[in-house]
Amino acid sequence: MTQQIPLSELPNWMGREFVSEWLTIDQSLIDDFARVTGDNEWIHVDVPRATEAFGGTIAHGLLTLTLLPRFGYTLYTVTDIDHGMNYGINNVRFPATVPTGSRVRLRLTLKSLEPRGDRVMLKQDFAFEREGGDKPVCVGEQLAIYAPARR
Q1: How many CA atoms lie within 13 A of 148 on its CB side?
Q2: Burial level of 16, CB count in 10 A (0-12/13-18/19+)?
Q3: If I label 7, which of 39, 54, 55, 105 is the partner at 20 to 30 A Cα–Cα?
């Protein structure tokens, strides 16, 4: 169940870790991402060639990164706001691959809040992990701006 956090209470949540459910990364999802982005590198979409070379295709690193909102919205939402905006992503790395058929999930830790005029900027660390993997497949710091609800 998605945690509802009022903006006024967000400071009390710093340091809290959220963990998503698992999602299977199948070839259909990879192919769809390749079509949308134009990234048709054979290691992602050419199953016979990738199987011969690596034992199978692997997901695009950027596909994993773009799952951040999909997972994030299932973990928590900030309430009592006019709007929230993605402000950016810092220090993204892809320490390990995601072989097709793998299951991944998101670990998200609320890190800090900074005033930005009448708004606040939330920094949160994230790490995508692959089931059975020994290191994360994607890590970074995500920034979001929240504007309080207008009264």
Answers
A1: 12
A2: middle
A3: 105
Q: Where are the beta strands (DSSP E) in the chain?
A: 3-6, 17-19, 23-24, 76-79, 81-93, 103-116, 119-130, 138-148
Q: Burial of 141 by CB count in 10 Å (0-12 exposed, 13-18 middle, 19+ buried)? A: middle
Full-model pTM? 0.93
pLDDT digits (tens, 9 = 90+) for 9-57: 999 999 999 999 999 999 999 999 999 999 999 999 999 999 999 899 9
Query: Count of H helices and E strands in the chain?
Result: 5, 8
Nearest to 7 by CA among 91, 80, 114, 107: 80
Rounded to whole angstroms, the Cα distance separating 34 from 108 reads: 26
